[in-house]
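FAQ: What does a ligand-bound record look like?

Like this one, built around threonylcarbamoyladenylate:
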Amino acid sequence: MHAPRTNEGPPPSDPAIARAVARLREGGLVAFPTETVYGLGADALNEAAVARVFAVKGRPSRNPLIVHVADAAAARPLVASWPEAAERLARAFWPGPLSIVLPKSAAVPALVTGGGPNVALRCPDHPVALSLLRAFGPLVGPSANRSGRVSPTTAAHVREAFPDAAEVLLLDGGACRAGIESTVVSLVGDRPRVLRPGIIGKERLAGVLGTAVDGPTGPTPGDGAFDSPGQLESHYAPAAPARLCDAADLAEILDAGGRIAVLGPAALVVAEPHRLYAIPSDAMGYAAGLYAALREADRRRPDLIAVVAPWTYAEDPTDPVWEAVADRLRRACRPGR
Ligand code: TXA
Ligand code: MG
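The answer part, i.e. the structure of the complex:
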């Protein structure tokens, strides 16, 4: 997520990369690692391939896909114009966990953008992803999970959701370092606006842009100003009901019975039949471990996943990364369940 790593990663002649490129040329799907979560890749300029991504994920067609590129030069043909603000953000944060929304060019199929006029672009900071993008070209890359479910941060998570290698070819790049999806920032409109919080916070964006940055505004379904459909509530959700609580509520929840999976700090004592899933208490460590912990907790089919709000016990509750973590936890803990 820091300096560009232009010389890292397998060469285009690498057999795994070559196989992946061949699959993409046929209009097939290739799951690939990024620094945030695994993406479900397909040729961004091939409508049939993009349609396959929506079908396989079970994704609503109006929810647009992020287009992944090898660098800023590869992004330019995909946008109507490349403003100074985009240049600044790309220089500061690419490759990295930032998706930039701009008016699309005619090169981008309407299917990619959910029928809308804008496209989200991102250059991921992972050697395997960058090798693939250099060898093939722009790829759509939604998180490689079934729609609405928890994003995958390991190759095994991807295989669980998509077991058929004939349907989804998988490039294994190990565990994702950042662990939660990219910050999505829109440069459409009067002021830059964060549509989805991530590791790169508003303050850092504002610092690079030299202007104020709005949002996220927390849109809700049915809200007229709803312009990032992936921000639907009840997203990133485990199968078991999940609930955000603080340490004081926890005793009461555990006493009420059932089998509770608790996501909390390692020092917490949780007695049988409940079980503790320990998670680091620094914001970056928490983000990196969150999805794997939710999946692990879900696996035992608990009656409830109780998530102790991490900022209530964090070493540094002011870390801006907690904003992104809070966003994902709010969505994982579905309202009304
Ligand atoms: O970190 C990430 O961004 C990962 C990795 C694989 O790169 N990808 C990812 O994609 O999280 P996905 O499709 O699961 O989430 C994309 C989010 C959704 O909330 C979607 O609505 C929003 O970005 N988005 C995509 N294109 C957009 C656009 N043109 N305008 C507004 N929001 C957009
Ligand atoms: Mg997703």
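Follow-up question: can I read anything off the structure? Yes, for example: The pocket of magnesium ion (ligand 2) is lined by residues 142-143, 151 (CB under 6 Å).
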